[in-house]
Amino acid sequence: MQRFPQPLLTGYRNFMTGRYTVERDRYRQLADAGQTPHTLIIACCDSRAAPETIFDAGPGELFVVRNVANMVPPYEPDGQYHSTSAALEFAVQSLKVKDIIVMGHGRCGGIKAVLDPNAAPLSPGDFIGKWMNLVKPAAEQIQSNSIMTTAERQTAMERVSIRNSITNLRTFPEVKALEDGGKLQVHGAWFDISNGELWVMDKESQDFVRLDG
Ligand SMILES: [Zn+2]
């Protein structure tokens, strides 16, 4: 029989004796009543930037979508496969989340790739390259900025991409209507994996401001 990864077996045992034991009633209640998460988080697949860990969230609290570089595509009802849009639709229309957070992070590999003019496709499908086309125009502008260092361009692009995703979120008619009606709030956040800092986007200025820990 194929062997399940040992770190996961160990982790699962720890979960069952630790967290599940503590939260058994909560899991049962969620199983019976269904989930009512208050927040949708769109985060990166990066193993270092897990929203449930960063926000110390328990079961049933966060509805999480993770994709490469935490991006939201624009509203495109074209009959194609749109996994992020499907999750967004479910969170907004069915779960009626009150907040949506687009959370980027430092040292993002997807952002690094889009800023690298020599990046070659990883496979013939070049799925990452095509996905990152969502921010290619902004990346080309930032690439041409010779005053910034490579690290500064990376951080700038991570934040520009968050703003771009928020702009795209608002192209979904339901998101726009709920936000305009005061029933839904849209936020940007950026997590620095090197020191644990969380920076939150100011709604008016769109600048990122560090939260006090
Ligand atoms: Zn990332």
UniProtKB/TrEMBL annotation:
Membrane-spanning segments: none
Keywords (A to Z) from UniProt: Lyase, Metal-binding, Zinc
Record PANTHER family: CARBONIC ANHYDRASE
EC class (word): lyase
GO molecular function term, any single one: carbonate dehydratase activity
Similarity comment: Belongs to the beta-class carbonic anhydrase family.
Enzyme Commission (EC) number: 4.2.1.1
Superkingdom per UniProt: Bacteria
Cofactor list: Zn(2+)
Keyword set includes Zinc: yes
Catalytic reactions of this protein: hydrogencarbonate + H(+) = CO2 + H2O
Name of this protein: Carbonic anhydrase
InterPro entries, per the entry: Beta_CA_cladeB, Carbonic_anhydrase, Carbonic_anhydrase_CS, Carbonic_anhydrase_sf
CDD domains in alphabetical order: beta_CA_cladeB (cd00884)
Function of the molecule: Reversible hydration of carbon dioxide.
